[in-house]
Automatic annotation (TrEMBL), chain A:
DNA repair in keyword set: no
Listed name of the protein: Cytochrome b561
Species of origin: Bradyrhizobium sacchari
Membership in a protein family: Belongs to the cytochrome b561 family.
Cofactors that this protein relies on: heme b
TrEMBL record, chain B:
UniProt protein name: Catalase-related peroxidase
Recorded superkingdom: Bacteria
Any single Gene Ontology cellular-component annotation: cytoplasm
Pfam families (alphabetical): Catalase
GO MF annotation, one: heme binding
Enzyme class: oxidoreductase
Binding site for heme: Y328
């Protein structure tokens, strides 16, 4: 990268918002399905498994794009500690997006459940049944899921802080809308 | 971009806006998770209602806690193909893993004290596709809805005899099950019991025709009625001893009979039987060939979740399979996490 980009590439912005919506859906469906015995339990868990695995593929594409296109720099006047926090939190978000589907899948394998997705797609098990592994992955999936929601809230608060209070252009780097202002880059 | 030093006057408003957005998101999440609705029937509440006053059966199933594993074969005769394109209906032999069990939350219950006997079954197609089911011996289920089942567990757990009376009054469908429990003959063997799906499912055949069905495993061993008092003399574990001895001497068989609903039959309510004259199709034979103790047996770590279905079978408007799936999953999570309390070798038991 010779010159740092001014905004995230359109495909990166598209993926960010698509995945943001889907991950929020995953979190709400997750806690909703485990707290119901109503008939909607079955479609919810099917959505959870199918969308969760689709997100695993999307995050891989997204990481590849991130390595290819990079990210625009944060505002120069942002205190170094805040910059570090922003970088770490984004790293964590990527980590969560990678690990959550793997935990979910591994947890089902370790319980000897067949993993059948929407449309009857069967996923072959790569782990044998194991109480210990199931319990570990289950706990990790539940607690990291809650931690992910907390981190998403923090991320949302930070984004709004940039957009509404600092008005420093950070939000514009990922904004789904085409930019109106000056020096419109070729998009 | 941001002129240094200028904090817009709207900052306070913006902060309040941000706090509101975050607060509302957190509240919506808590609501979805049921944290704000203690009245919601969750799997945890169902399990709490199943739990005896002496505490949960650590390491064991939260219901049907006492059981014994078996291995065997499902011999499909090919008649099922007309109803469902499930691979295991094509004529052939398919491996089966299963578990005979008692409808109690007490893993050391005395056999003669438990009215409901059940079977858990997993039939595997050649490509690994699984069909799991859990069937019981009464001809109808006790209640019409999962909510009513929770009410039943709560009422039955109360010392006050009025509680059950009030329950029966509010759930008149319970009478049929209660009559069966009181009057139906007992037998001295798992091999002499029929096992019924009670819940309705939908079969789809290769042409796409759909039929609402229930099914039963009908024993080939003739049932010999035995008075409950005489069963008590057989010792606390006579069912496991009996089935082990029987299978050792010869494989035990059940005929799998599919019952096809007529339009208008009550598919959503397992407490209501279908008329006797409904079409019945014999689709194959369950052959039980080997018995193994549960402690380190192959059925121990299987959740016989009735919604693990092959292509060609799906749930109907019966609300029970979904409720059961949700509760069985939680029961599995718990017992797997407590595996240490139920050691796999007898010697290791404290
Ligand atoms: C579920 C949700 C979300 C996830 C997992 C997520 C994830 C991420 C990640 C990983 C980055 C870093 C991109 C990179 O450096 O490669 C990022 C950037 C960003 N996100 Fe999100 N996001 C989510 C939701 C949101 C929401 C709801 C907003 C705003 C309302 C938002 C606003 C932003 C902004 C402004 C950036 C740019 C930061 C920068 O320029 O470095 N995100 N997001
Ligand atoms: C982005 C990905 C994912 C997120 C954010 C996510 C989030 C969650 C959350 C919040 C819960 C509820 C935990 C609780 O409160 O008990 C949950 C449960 C669950 N998730 Fe996921 N999940 C993801 C991917 C997956 C995948 C790919 C699968 C399987 C293929 C899966 C399978 C499950 C299962 C089976 C449960 C129920 C666990 C239990 O209580 O037995 N998840 N998930
Ligand atoms: C809402 C109603 C029901 C609830 C809450 C419930 C609850 C449970 C629970 C918690 C287990 C233990 C699962 C495990 O840990 O693997 C279980 C097992 C079982 N249930 Fe149910 N059940 C319900 C309805 C039914 C019905 C309608 C039938 C039969 C038609 C049935 C038959 C069985 C059998 C046979 C087992 C033992 C399966 C095995 O061997 O693992 N249950 N039930």
């Amino acid at each position: 990268m010779t010159s740092a980009p001014h905004r995230f590439a359109p495909i990166q912005r598209l993926l960010h918002w698509l995945m943001a919506v889907c991950i929020l859906v995953m979190l709400f469906v997750g806690v909703g399905m485990v707290s119901t015995v109503a008939p909607k339990y079955l479609p919810l868990i099917e959505i959870h498994k199918t969308l969760g695995l689709a997100l695993l593929f999307l995050v891989l594409i997204r990481l590849a794009l991130r390595l290819r296109f990079g990210a625009p720099p944060l505002p120069a006047d942002l205190p170094p500690a805040v910059k570090l926090g922003a970088r770490l939190s984004h790293l964590l978000l990527y980590g969560f997006m990678m690990i959550m589907p793997l935990l979910g899948l591994g947890m089902l394998w370790a319980a000897a459940y067949p993993v059948v997705l929407y449309g009857g797609i069967q996923v072959t098990a790569l782990l044998p049944q194991s109480d210990g592994v199931h319990t570990l992955l289950w706990n990790a999936h539940v607690y990291l899921g809650l931690a992910l929601f907390a981190l998403v809230l923090l991320h949302l608060a930070a984004a709004l802080f940039h957009a509404l209070i600092r008005r420093d252009g950070v939000f514009a780097t990922i904004s789904p809308l085409p930019q109106r202002e000056r020096m419109k880059p070729a998009e | 971009m941001k002129p240094p030093g200028r904090l817009p006057r709207s900052s306070l408003g913006s902060l309040i806006l941000i706090a509101t957005v975050i607060g509302c998101s957190a509240a919506a999440f808590a609501y979805t998770a049921g944290w704000l609705s203690p009245g919601r029937l969750t799997p945890d509440r169902m399990i709490a209602a199943l739990t005896p006053p002496s505490g949960p059966p650590l390491g064991h199933r939260r219901n049907h806690a006492k059981g014994i594993c078996f291995a065997g074969t499902f011999e499909a005769n090919g008649n099922g193909v007309e109803l469902s394109r499930a691979k295991v209906f094509a004529q052939g032999r398919y491996p089966v893993l299963g578990r005979f069990n008692l409808g109690t939350a007490d893993p050391s219950a005395v056999d003669a004290t438990v009215r409901v006997r059940g079977i858990g079954l997993q039939i595997s197609a050649a490509d690994g596709e699984e069909w799991r089911m859990a069937l019981i011996n009464p001809p109808v289920f006790a209640v019409a809805t999962p909510d009513a089942f929770h009410d039943l567990l709560v009422a039955a757990g109360k010392k006050d005899p009025e509680a059950m009376k009030a329950f029966s009054h509010a759930n008149p469908e319970f009478a049929a099950f209660a009559a069966w429990a009181k009057a139906a003959p007992w037998t001295a063997s798992y091999a002499e019991e029929p096992y019924n799906s009670l819940n309705s499912f939908v079969f789809t055949n290769a042409k796409g025709d759909e039929h609402a069905v229930r099914w039963s495993l009908v024993p080939t061993a003739a049932p010999v009625p035995v008075a409950q008092a005489d069963l008590e003399k057989l010792g606390p574990d006579f069912l496991e001893q009996d089935i082990t001895a029987r299978v050792q001497s010869a494989p035990q068989r059940w005929t799998m009979v599919t019952i096809v609903a007529d339009p208008g039959d009550p598919t959503a309510d397992p407490s209501r039987p279908w008329p006797e004259n409904r079409r019945k199709v014999q689709v194959g034979t369950l052959v039980v060939e080997r018995i193994e103790a549960e402690r380190d047996g192959p059925c121990r770590d299987i959740n016989f979740d009735p919604t693990v279905l092959p292509q060609g079978v799906r749930v109907s408007d019966d609300p029970f399979p979904a409720a059961r799936s949700s509760v069985y999953r939680r029961s599995y999570d718990l017992r797997a996490a407590e595996a240490r309390d139920y050691p796999r070798t007898e010697a290791a038991e404290p």
